[in-house]
């Protein structure tokens, strides 16, 4: 849970950063019930399923039954593949989540930068680093960050990318 009002009262008005990125609904949901044991079991068995794994799955089906060659995934009895997914299983129940599920859950539009593409574009990197770090010799370390960036970092590692397993 993140107390944006408390942070704002202490001169850390960081909520607009998350609202602008479309994370408002996510933080609203964090104030509701969370089931850590269920999530732990989900992530223990979770696998990323990409186009590569989909092709492997098709090849394995054909190896088991050569008459499936040239057939669609549906005709092979496989789950349709529409894009990268997170797949898991809890108590025998198969769970599949895709980008579309997260977009719908968080009321987000399907748009934005692909991280691989963004990281190759260095136009804004230096300006961004100077806004994030007080001491450039501490670049990449929390203690070198501005106070505002330190607050943002703590929110991200506690609420979006928690370091517990």
Strand arrangement within the widest β-sheet reads 1-2-3
Summarize the biggest pleated sheet: 3 strands, antiparallel
> Can you write the helix and strand succession as a string?
HHHHEHHEEHHHH
Overall pLDDT metric:
88
Which outline best applies? elongated
- How widely separated are the two ends? 18 Å
Total helical segments: 10
Strand content: 5-15%
Number of strands: 3
Oligomerization: single chain
Q: Which residue ranges are poorly predicted, with pLDDT under 50 across at least 5 consecutive positions?
A: none
Structural class, from helix and strand content?
A: mainly alpha
Percentage of residues assigned to helices? 40-55%
State the main characteristics.
single chain; three-stranded antiparallel beta sheet; mainly alpha; elongated; 165 residues
Outline the structure in words.
The protein is mainly alpha-helical. It has a domain at 35-105. The chain has 10 helices and 3 strands; from the N terminus they run H-H-H-H-E-H-H-E-E-H-H-H-H. The protein has helices at 4-9, 15-20, 24-30, 36-45, 51-64, 73-76, 99-105, 115-120, 125-132, 147-160, and strands at residues 47-49, 85-90, 93-98. A 3-stranded antiparallel β-sheet has the order 1-2-3. The longest helix is centred in the middle third of the chain and has 14 residues, at 51-64. 1% of the residues are buried.
Short description:
50% of the residues lie in helices and 9% in strands. By secondary structure, it is mainly alpha-helical.
Please describe the topology of this protein.
Blueprint: H1 4-9, H2 15-20, H3 24-30, H4 36-45, E1 47-49, H5 51-64, H6 73-76, E2 85-90, E3 93-98, H7 99-105, H8 115-120, H9 125-132, H10 147-160
Antiparallel strand pairs: 1-2, 2-3
């Amino acid at each position: 849970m993140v107390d944006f009002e408390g942070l704002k009262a202490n001169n850390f008005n960081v909520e607009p950063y998350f609202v602008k990125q479309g994370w408002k609904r996510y933080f609203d949901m964090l104030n509701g019930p969370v089931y850590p044991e269920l999530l732990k079991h989900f992530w223990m068995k979770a696998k990323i399923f990409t186009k590569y794994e989909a092709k492997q799955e098709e090849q394995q089906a054909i190896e088991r039954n050569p008459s499936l060659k040239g057939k669609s995934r549906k005709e092979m009895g496989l789950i349709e593949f529409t894009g990268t997914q997170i797949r898991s299983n809890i108590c025998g129940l198969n769970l599949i989540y895709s980008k579309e599920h997260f977009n719908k859950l968080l009321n987000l539009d399907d748009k934005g930068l692909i991280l691989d593409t963004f990281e190759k574009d260095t136009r804004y990197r230096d300006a961004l680093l100077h806004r994030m770090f007080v001491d450039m010799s501490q670049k990449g370390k929390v203690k070198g960050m501005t106070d505002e960036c330190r607050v943002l970092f703590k929110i991200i590692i506690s609420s979006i990318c928690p370091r517990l397993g």
